[in-house]
């Protein structure tokens, strides 16, 4: 029985066609995986389905009835529940308040709290979604918050559940628990669409796979009839080529942390971390987000000072630590969030590329900026890094993520830095841009720089890193050489289960 | 009389509660707006509108409660203007709020001049009279201080209870609070963020206007220029002081009013030796101190002052 039918969905954002005439059907009790690279149009499609966006063409039909466009309420009432990638929870309110929000008529004089609590407890028990209804959302872990999102949908008696990149924020253990829950839901007759770009998850949890590429539906396979290789080829449109990594030539320790602790930054602080970055090596930092990666990145960027321990760059210990000092010591930064931190959206490319060095002799004279030199530098990066943009005067926010990242990278790598902090350098980029960023990092490695690669994508870490360390609750594991630890072992460390020393 | 003895006279507390009443209304109004995510800096102007609208209705022959209703309606209209600019259009809440205050104040003075071109001294109306609540008003001390006030003061206290009930005990209140915390959570549950926010700003503005009307219809009996005199701004601070909770905000309003009532009495006591301006300053200085002590840990609504556009994240 078909529960959901999408017919000819097309959505354009200006010249970009995010979804191009996409049609498919979802059956009762079925799990569809929607597979595609970042920017393939998966999330756009789901947002149309759920009524967050108006499609330019096409229609959505649930349980035989066409849904009115752009109306989340209609989607909810038709039994569609969505678990967004970025949770839509109010942090300072309780789990129960978040779940019951909008489920009762607004003008009722009271909330039926006891009844609601009972239903939530029953649902969590039936589907293995353990969470305390009275807890404030702010006090929950990321995995628990996701359970609240799923409970929200179940509380509304959703029959179709859409999960947008549900595993991006989970540890391997939590992911297994989520897949168990999905099986229980399907057994009760729910239908599920889950969005992912991770092949092994798609293979593990779905009945059928739809592959999106460049906004088009390029393939549909029964999971049983396909393999990771075929899906990967469909997803990127060519045989996937792993980055070419030459044998490591380790140099001197260029950045040494000893017993460093910091304040909390976005979740966790560092807790007595010792870490050595050597020249000519890429050190990969694996971990579930919120475990201290942000604190480590902030420390290396100079925005956070150590509260204990010592930091030494290139052999000399650091006394007065600031972003300027970090730059002065030759630490290059590729920040995690290129929109919020890496660039100033409404300033031009030229202004952005000199943002870290505008007061150097190269770009300023007697306190005035030498715009000719600045523009020349921007043009040089645009040429060398093949940045697609109208001119150096373009506001940087108008560029695509990949082009923006190339500029950030160009700015960071230009002074031949000693240490490079690359924090989620490929997040949200398409395959081509990812390969480009990887190649540039490997180039810097050849040159002898020490690179710290922080990423939530374990495959990226494993592909590039000569040394892998795992961060969990602000503590960093002992390093392992390429290939020394299995994915399972790394997963255990990420989940905070230490290994016997 | 000793400075401390003042605190134990019923007349002092009668004054404190009277001074607190308009603050309570307006603070509740501001609290509702901010809980939904909108900072309403139009409060000072909207109180002015309310003070004039209520008073002028009675002056023109309406009865007192009609005056209160007209004041509330006028406030709601300015709230609608504020909300239209800040919610669907997403304009800066600071700029719009200050604009509304300037506009509402000037329009009120202009209307006053148009309506009463001839008068030299402000005309008087017959204001609300104290009403002793049978039974409760015979409690010693407390009865005199609290239960022998005008009906509008009782309404102010009722409003606090009502606001607290709605915010914490009803589905509507849940939606209002969520709109101020994370509007996308509200939208994801099928409720219109814009409707919730516009409604909250209108209701909040109506309460601010009633707070203004209290001054002309209960505390005094006529309308003066500059009579709001910064009370609106105090209410903004009181919301922060109360950590966006109605009960704590009520305490804050009474505390501030008590400071104010106290300084008036201290002025009389000091017999002109100390410049009276120092006493006038006292409640404000103490408020800042209280704010520092109490509100530093306050967790404000996360989406306060963040316009919400559907489909953006």
Count of alpha and pi helical runs of chain B: 12
Shape of chain A: globular
Structural class designation of chain B: mainly alpha
Tally of structural domains of chain B: 1
CATH fold-type name of chain B: ABC transporter involved in vitamin B12 uptake, BtuC
Poorly predicted ranges of chain A (pLDDT <50, ≥5 residues)?
none
Q: Reading side by side through the largest sheet of chain B, how are the strands ordered?
A: 1-2
The helicity of chain A comes to 25-40%
Distance from N terminus to C terminus of chain B (CA atoms, Å) equals 63 Å
**Text of the CATH class of chain B:** Mainly Alpha
Major beta-sheet overview of chain B: 2 strands, antiparallel
Largest sheet of chain A: 7 strands, mixed
Report a brief summary of the structure:
Chain A has 501 residues and is an alpha/beta fold.
Task: Write a structural description.
The complex is a heterodimer of chains A (501) and B (313). Chain A has 3 domains: 2-236, Rossmann fold, CATH 3.40.50.300; 246-330 and 417-501, 3-Layer(aba) Sandwich (Rossmann fold), CATH 3.40.50; 341-416, no CATH class. Chain A contains 17 helices and 23 strands. Chain A has helices at 42-49, 72-77, 95-100, 113-127, 142-155, 172-187, 199-205, 228-236, 293-301, 323-328, 338-342, 349-353, 371-384, 401-413, 431-447, 458-464, 487-494, and strands spanning 2-13, 16-27, 31-35, 57-62, 65-66, 80-83, 160-164, 191-196, 208-213, 216-222, 253-261, 273-278, 281-286, 308-313, 316-317, 331-334, 364-365, 368-369, 419-423, 450-454, 467-472, 475-476, 480-481. In chain A, strands 13, 16, 19, 20, 21, 22 and 23 form a 7-stranded mixed sheet that branches. In chain A, strands 6-7-8-3-9-10 form a 6-stranded mixed sheet, sandwiched between helices. Chain A has a 4-stranded antiparallel sheet with strand order 2-1-4-5, with helices on one face. The longest helix of chain A is centred in the last third of the chain and has 17 residues, at 431-447. The radius of gyration of chain A is 24 Å and the shape is globular. The mean pLDDT of chain A is 88. By secondary structure, chain B is mainly alpha-helical. Chain B is built from 12 helices and 2 strands. Chain B is globular, with a radius of gyration of 20 Å. In chain B, strands 1-2 form a two-stranded antiparallel ribbon.
């Amino acid at each position: 029985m078909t529960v959901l039918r999408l017919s000819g969905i097309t959505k354009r954002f200006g010249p970009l066609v995010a979804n191009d005439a996409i049609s498919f059907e979802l059956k009762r009790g079925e799990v569809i995986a929607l597979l595609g690279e970042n920017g393939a149009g998966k999330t756009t499609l789901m947002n149309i389905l759920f009524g967050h966006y108006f499609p330019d063409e096409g229609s959505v039909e649930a349980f035989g009835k066409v849904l009115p466009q752009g109306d989340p309420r209609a989607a909810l009432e038709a039994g569609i529940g969505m678990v967004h990638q970025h949770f839509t929870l109010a942090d300072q309110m309780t789990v129960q308040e978040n779940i019951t929000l909008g489920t009762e008529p607004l003008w009722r004089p009271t909330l039926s709290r006891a009844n609601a609590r009972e239903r939530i407890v029953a649902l969590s028990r039936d589907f293995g979604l353990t969470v305390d209804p009275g807890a404030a959302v702010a006090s929950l872990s990321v995995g628990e918050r996701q359970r609240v999102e799923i409970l929200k949908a179940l509380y509304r008696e959703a029959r179709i559940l859409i999960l947008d990149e549900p595993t991006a924020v989970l540890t391997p253990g939590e992911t297994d628990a989520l897949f168990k829950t999905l099986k229980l839901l399907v057994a009760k007759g729910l239908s599920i669409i889950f969005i992912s770009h991770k092949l092994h998850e798609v293979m593990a949890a779905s009945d059928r796979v739809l592959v999106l590429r460049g906004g088009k539906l390029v393939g549909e396979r029964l999971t049983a009839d396909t393999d990771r290789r075929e899906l990967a080829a469909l997803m990127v449109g060519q045989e996937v080529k792993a980055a070419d990594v030459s044998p490591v030539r380790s140099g001197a320790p260029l950045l040494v942390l000893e017993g460093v602790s910091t304040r909390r930054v976005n979740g966790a602080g560092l807790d007595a971390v010792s870490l050595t970055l050597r020249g000519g090596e890429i050190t990969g930092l694996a971990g579930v987000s919120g475990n201290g990666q942000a604190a480590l990145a902030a420390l290396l960027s100079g925005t956070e000072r150590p509260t204990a321990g010592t930091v030494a760059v290139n052999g000399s210990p650091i006394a007065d630590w600031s972003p300027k000092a970090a730059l002065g010591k030759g630490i290059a930064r590729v920040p995690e969030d290129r929109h919020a931190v890496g660039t100033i959206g409404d300033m031009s490319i030229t202004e952005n590329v000199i943002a870290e060095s505008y007061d150097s002799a190269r770009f300023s004279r007697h306190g005035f900026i030498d715009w000719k030199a600045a523009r020349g530098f921007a043009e040089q990066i645009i040429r060398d890094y093949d940045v697609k943009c109208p001119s150096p005067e373009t506001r940087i926010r108008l560029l695509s993520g990949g082009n923006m990242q190339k500029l950030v990278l160009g700015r960071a790598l230009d002074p031949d830095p000693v240490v490079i902090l690359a924090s989620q350098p490929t997040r949200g980029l398409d395959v081509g841009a990812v390969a480009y960023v990887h190649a540039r990092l490997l180039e810097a490695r050849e040159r002898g720089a020490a690179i710290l690669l922080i990423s939530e994508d374990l495959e990226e870490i494993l592909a590039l890193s000569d040394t892998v360390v795992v961060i969990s609750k602000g503590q960093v594991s002992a390093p392992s050489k390429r290939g020394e630890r299995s994915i399972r072992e790394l997963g255990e460390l990420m989940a905070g289960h230490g290994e016997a020393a | 009389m000793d400075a401390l003895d003042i605190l134990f006279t019923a007349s002092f507390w009668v004054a404190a509660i009277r001074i607190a009443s308009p603050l309570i209304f307006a603070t509740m109004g501001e609290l509702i707006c901010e809980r939904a995510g909108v900072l309403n800096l139009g409060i000072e102007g909207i109180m002015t509108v309310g003070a004039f609208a209520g008073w002028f209705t009675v002056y023109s022959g309406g009865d007192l409660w009609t005056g209160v209703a007209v004041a509330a309606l006028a406030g709601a209209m300015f709230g609608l203007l504020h909300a239209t600019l800040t919610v669907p259009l997403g304009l800066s809440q600071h700029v719009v709020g200050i604009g509304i205050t300037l506009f509402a104040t000037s329009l009120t003075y202009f209307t006053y001049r148009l309506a009463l071109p001839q008068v030299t001294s402000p005309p008087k109306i017959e204001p609300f009279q104290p009403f002793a609540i049978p039974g409760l008003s015979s409690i010693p001390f407390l009865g005199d201080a609290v239960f022998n006030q005008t009906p509008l003061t009782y309404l102010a206290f009722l409003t606090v209870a009502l606001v607290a009930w709605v915010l914490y005990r009803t589905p509507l209140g849940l939606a209002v609070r969520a709109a101020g915390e994370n509007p996308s959570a509200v939208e994801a549950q099928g409720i219109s963020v814009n409707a919730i926010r516009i409604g909250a700003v209108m209701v909040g503005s109506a309460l601010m206007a009633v707070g203004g009307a209290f001054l002309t219809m209960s505390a005094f009996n006529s309308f003066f220029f500059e009579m709001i005199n910064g009370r609106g701004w105090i209410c903004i601070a009181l919301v922060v002081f109360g950590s966006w909770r109605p009960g704590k905000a009520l305490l804050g309003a009474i505390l501030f009013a008590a400071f104010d009532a106290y300084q008036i009495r201290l002025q009389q006591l000091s017999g002109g030796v100390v410049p009276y301006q120092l006493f006038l300053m006292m409640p404000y200085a103490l408020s800042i101190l209280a704010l520092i002590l109490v509100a530093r840990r306050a967790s404000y609504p996360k989406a306060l002052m963040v316009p919400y556009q559907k489909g953006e994240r």
